[in-house]
Every structure is written in structure tokens, then in C-alpha cells.
Amino acid sequence: MKTIDSIPTSKIQRASKLVKTGAKVGVNYLKYYGDKIINTEVEAKERLNKNNANDIYDGLKQLKGSALKVAQMLSMEKNILPNAYVEKFSLAQFSVPPLSPPLVIKTFKQYFGKHPNEIFDVFNSTSVNAASIGQVHKAEKDKKELAVKIQYPGVAQSISSDLAMVKPIAMSMFNIKGKDSGKYFKEVEDKLIEETDYILEVEQSIAMVNAAKHIPNLLFPRYYKELSSERIITMDWMHGEHLSEFVAHNTNQEMANQLGQALWDFYMFQIHKLKKVHADPHPGNFLINKEGKLIVIDFGCIKEIPEEFYIPYFELAEEDNINNPALFKDKLYELEILREDDSKEEVEFFTKMFHEMLSLFTQPLHQEVFDFSNPDFFEKIGQLGERYSKSTELRKMNGNRGSKHFIYINRTFFGLYNLMFDLKSQGVKINNFKKL
């Protein structure tokens, strides 16, 4: 894969790169208007989406950092974005052009004050895995195989300006309006800032490993504080393949069930017992070894779940409460889904919309055992998301709804559901975490 010798770090450099990307998108639209004259609307739109996805991703992968991280987050929104965007943006999870070896050495010396060969017995300056915020190198010390994650230069300093640049696009995509829309972007900004603090990540990782290491069929690397810094993390090298690679060839249903149960138990234990959760459930953060154990390798994004959100959120997920109109509406207000300044039409529309969504989305939580390999359940979710994404009625209303905590908690559940479906796990015991 082609490497990168430099990354735009100043606000002007990064803005200029996005402007150039925007110009390419503009050209794609001009092509689209001509294309649909001689071809069908569907064919023309598919080509437009593919061309735009390619150009936007090509621009973001050179910027790296939070701009690329937003693309990674959007790649999980399979029911909102066209498939061309999902496929392209999902590359941001664990496959982007890495820094060149000379830039790696320079960055390492900048962050750690030493050449990597002064610290490790062996250090491979060629990356084995590159994502949105950092890339991973293989090293050895005292006969131990190690993974060394190095953060891209300038990432932490550019978060606020990057989000300001992508904010108009996100607001349009998710129909966010209103004076208090900033709270959602502040939530994302705060989490991204945390993800660039590798000292915090090491502390969170060690705490999470200690809390969850008793869960069956889960493995975690050991983290080394003395070999880590604010922008570098050193941990055990874990042998396995990415979850997405595993599911592409797996035919062992028993192993799929075992992995799915471990993954589900891990998330339910975090949410309900720890009240904090690994809120970045994409395939690049999980490995699977030959023994069928699930390995969790990244704890950069940990979301604390405050009690005042946790209680009404899971009360709203209970089947009896969903089917109790008065209580259901009360919980919608409590979670800021309905607002005091809503019109009668908005109250009716969003009450109906969320009743339909929650009645479907919470189905696994209403059963003792659930089959996540069932395509009907996921097709219904996809159809519902597509219907509301195209709703002209919804576009006319204020889509700025819900507590800021929805952003990462909903992202966690959507990502978890997608991983469970990818694994095709059957017979998953929903409440197994209560015994752990």
C-alpha cells in the first residue's frame, strides 16, 4: 500500500484539502445531471454515490484524524447512508494508507523523545495496520511480541476545526436544526479528544480488562504503561484475524454462537454492571483466534452512562412500557425526544415514529434467547431506516431530538447488532450477563 510522507496539520491546509474534495463532488453532480438524461435515474444515482464516496474518502484518508473518524462512524450507519458510502467509509476502520517509515521514526522521536530502537529490541517501522487516528507497528522486547500504536501528528490539535468543517454536512444528513444542536457536536468532540489521549486510553484499557476478564471466551492484551506516552501505546501483540475477515470464511456455527455469546455478554455486562461501555463496536476493534476466542484490542472510546439517562432509556426499552401510551410518551419527554415547544403534529409524528422504531429494535431484549442470524429482523430495521431517511414529512420537522447520550449509546447498539448479524450467531442468551 502507498505510504504518506506528510499530513496537513494546519487549519488552512486541512480546509484547503476539503475544498478541493468539495470541488470534485461538484463535478460529479454535473456528470450526474447529464448521466440521468441518457440512463435511468437509479443507474445515474448509483454512479453519483460511488464517485462521491470515492472522492470524499480519498480526501479524508489524507487528512486522517477526526475527519476520517467521522467517516468511520458513518460507515456503521448502514440504514442511513447509501451502500457505496458504507463500503468505502468502512475502510477507515482498519485499512488506510500508513505513514512512511521516515515519518514514523520522526513522529516516534517527537512523542517519546527517543528512537524506537533505543526502547525496543526490534521495531518494524512499516505499519501493519493503519486507521483513522493512529497506526500499529510490530515490536519485540525481552522476547515478548508487542503492538505499538502511534498517533498521527496533528490529530489532537485539529479536532475542533475538523468538526467545524464537517458540521454542515452532518447537520444536513441527520436533519439537525435548532439553537441547541451544538450539544451533539460537543459530545462527539469531547469523545474524540479523549480518544487522542493515549495515557487515558491505557488507564481505561487496564480498568476494563480487569473488570471483564472473567467473561468466558474473551481475551485482552496486556498494556505497558512504561512503554506508553500521551501519543503512543504499547500492548501485547495478539494473534488472530479481524472479525470481518473471519466471518467471510467461517462455516463453524458452534464457533459463531460461542463468539456471539461472548460479544453479547461483554456488552451487556459493561452497560448494565459497569455503566460504561466500549462505544466503538466495529470489526477493526476485534480479533478472533484459532481457538474461537474473541479478542478486544482497542478501548479508546469509552462512554460513561449516567444514571439519569440509563434508567429512562432502559425503561423505554421494556415491552410493557412501549405498549403503555401514557408512560411511553412520558419517557419520550424525559429523554428529550419530545420537546415542550413541539407542535401537536410533531408530538404525534415523533411518538408514532419512535413507537414503531423501538417496537422493532428492542425485540432481542424482550426474549430470553435470540437468533441474530435471522435476516428478517435486520431487513425490517433496514427498511424502516430507509423509509424514514426518505420521509419528506420528517425533513420538514426539527430532527434535533434526544439526549446527547443517545449518540454513543445508539451507536453502540447499532454496531453490536451489526456485528452479531455478521457472525450469524444463533441461540444467544440475552440475560446471560446477570450470572457473570
Describe what you observe in this structure.
With about 425 residues, the protein is an alpha+beta fold. It contains 18 helices and 13 strands. It has helices at about 10-40, 40-65, 65-75, 85-90, 100-110, 115-120, 160-175, 180-195, 200-210, 245-250, 255-275, 305-315, 320, 325-335, 345-360, 375-390, 390-395, 405-425, and strands at about 120-125, 130, 135-140, 145-150, 220, 230-235, 240, 275-280, 285-290, 295, 300-305, 370, 430. Strands 1, 2, 3, 4 and 6 form a 5-stranded antiparallel β-sheet that branches. Strand 3 and strand 4 (about 145-150) form a beta hairpin. Helix 2 (about 40-65) runs antiparallel to helix 3 (about 65-75), helix 3 (about 65-75) crosses helix 4 (about 85-90) and helix 7 (about 160-175) packs across helix 8 (about 180-195). The longest helix has 28 residues, at about 10-40. The chain is globular. The chain starts with 10 loop residues before the first helix and ends in a 7-residue tail after the last strand. The model has no long low-confidence stretch (mean pLDDT about 85).
* Proportion of residues in helical segments: 40-55%
Rg, please?
Answer: 22 Å
The averaged pLDDT comes out at 85
Uncertain stretches of 5 or more adjacent residues: none
Task: Tell the overall outline.
Answer: globular
Strand content: 5-15%
Total DSSP E strands = 13
Brief sketch in words of this structure:
By secondary structure, the chain is of the alpha+beta class.
Task: Give short descriptive properties of this protein.
436 residues, alpha+beta, 5-stranded antiparallel β-sheet, 18 helices
